[in-house]
Amino acid sequence: MPIENIPELYIKDSEKKIDLFVYDFKMTNDVVKSKVNLGMNMFSFLQVGKKQVHFAGTTIAVNQDQSLLLKKGNWLWTELLDTETIYYCKLFFFSEKKLKEFLEKHTENDRKVIEKTPYFIIKNDAYISSYLNSLSAITKAPIILADNLLSVKFEELMLYLLQKYGRKFELYLHSLIIKETSPFKKIVESKIHSNLKLEEIAFLCNMSLSTFKRHFIKEYKTSPGKWLQDKRLQKAKETLEQHNLKPSDIYLDFGYNNLSNFSIAFKNKFGFNPSKITL
Description:
Layout: E1 4-6, E2 20-27, E3 31-38, E4 41-48, E5 50-54, E6 59-63, E7 66-70, E8 73-80, E9 87-94, H1 96-106, E10 119-123, H2 126-138, H3 143-165, H4 167-175, H5 184-190, H6 198-204, H7 209-220, H8 224-242, H9 247-250, H10 259-270
């Protein structure tokens, strides 16, 4: 699956330096784990549908009752239709320059930032609903006027969220301008029990698959495929022992496309079929 560079993909004039950008994203089919290189921090105001985002160390799922503020980086996006035949969210991108200007104007220079979460969940309310309607009106204005209005609307939104969420939101905003490299082992080990493919985990580590494999073998002294399979099969065994579940209920959760492949791998490791546990 190709990597989507966002928001560049949505910007018509690629030569123009953009600090604030609003885009109405709509689709009529599900998209599962698309690779996204998010080049700017972004608000994702989900209107219709469901959204799941895999980050380097965690995963978050939201519906239209919630919106997300996402940190720029390499993420995997899953966007699903719900009861409607369309998925729709309004995206609001902002540059680091705009963020720094806001923080300098409205917050203290905070050196005690420990917030490292790549997302902030926003509960949709009457203000958010009204705000999104006003954003839609701005996008229809002349370009020069729209740019100035967007600056005002960006500051308005940030002030509202600062008032609503207080210190927690302030610390999160400061964390967005801290440069840090993602710890390799933390990312890998947070995905042990996911159903992500090696290529997808490598993407979250911001590496090619070949570089990821070399780095993995150096770190763990074994191949990533074998290591992940062993860890996931052990967890699958524990899951079957502890819960009233059948192998057919869990094989997808542990990265297997069908029950037969899961059963064969399970038997090769433990010497018996997984179905024996639930008998």
